[in-house]
Amino acid sequence: MTLQAYRLALKLYPGRNQYLDSYRGIIVLLMVGYHLCFDSIYFGYSWFEGANRNMNEHWGWLSLRAFIVGSFIFISALSVSYLPQRSKQASFFQHYKHVLILGLSAVFISLTSYWIFPKSWIDFGVLHFFFFTRLLLPWLRPLGSRYQWILAALIVALSFLQSSYFDAIPLRWIGLTTHKPITEDYVPLIPWLSVYLIGLALAPMLKKSACFSNPINSNTLSPLSIALLWLGQHSLFIYLVHQPLLWAIFNAIQTLR
């Protein structure tokens, strides 16, 4: 496909903000790179400095993961302000299509992680978090910036509370656990919902800023910019397929050695 065809394809996403898509594309690259490092360590390759470090314990890896997860959540909250308003005549599927897709994707992640990592499968990861926030959105969005800030501060304060009552799977999705559970991905409501609320609170102001209100001229985009936009616009698909693909590649390399 030519660059001109890509530029035309980018115009097929009405209602999306291309700046947010570009930023999301950068975070997608960081995510894939993070998982590439994770898989390299898992399969025993030591071609980079961090290969002998536990990614679930070292502050550098934990900080990078928190930045990636927090960025996805923040961008998702900002993107909500660009969602088109559905008419009252819209069908149930039109109203809840994205919610259903997120729910099915979360189930897929749980099932596949249980198959690969039965002792550390994902019961409430980032997709489960996004599914839950979309369910909460009809109540969170109308609150307005002032109450969204207040609720975010309250959730941050609650994050300092811990109880072993929340350590088991039925309740650990809330986030008041006494220790990080053994799971491949864990994004509980507390404290991450505060990041989502901050994004909702800032969205009206950022939407009026020149950076977000002026559309990108697709005719002047470079190949790199087009690639970032494409990654940002297909982040869910990439999230679902990149790890199985990396896993298959590493398994193939191990088999050929």
Mean of all residue-level pLDDT scores: 84
Report, as a whole number of angstroms, the end-to-end distance: 35 Å
Low-confidence stretches: none
Order of helices and strands: HHHHHHHHHHH
Count of DSSP strands: 0
User: Which structural class matches the secondary elements?
Assistant: mainly alpha
H/I helix tally:
11
Large-scale geometry: globular
Q: Main sheet, how many strands, which sense, barrel?
A: none
CA-based gyration radius: 20 Å
How much helicity do the residues have? Answer: 55-70%
**Beta-strand percent range:** under 5%
Describe the protein.
- This protein has 257 residues and is mostly helical.
- The chain is 66% helix and 0% strand.
- The chain contains eleven helices and no strands.
- It has helices at 3-10, 18-42, 59-80, 92-116, 126-140, 145-158, 169-172, 189-208, 210-213, 223-233, 235-256.
- Helix 1 (3-10) packs parallel to helix 10 (223-233), helix 3 (59-80) crosses helix 8 and helix 6 packs antiparallel against helix 8 (189-208).
- The protein is globular and about 55 Å long.
Short description:
The protein has helices spanning 3-10, 18-42, 59-80, 92-116, 126-140, 145-158, 169-172, 189-208, 210-213, 223-233, 235-256. The protein has 257 residues and is mainly alpha-helical.
Keywords:
single chain, mainly alpha
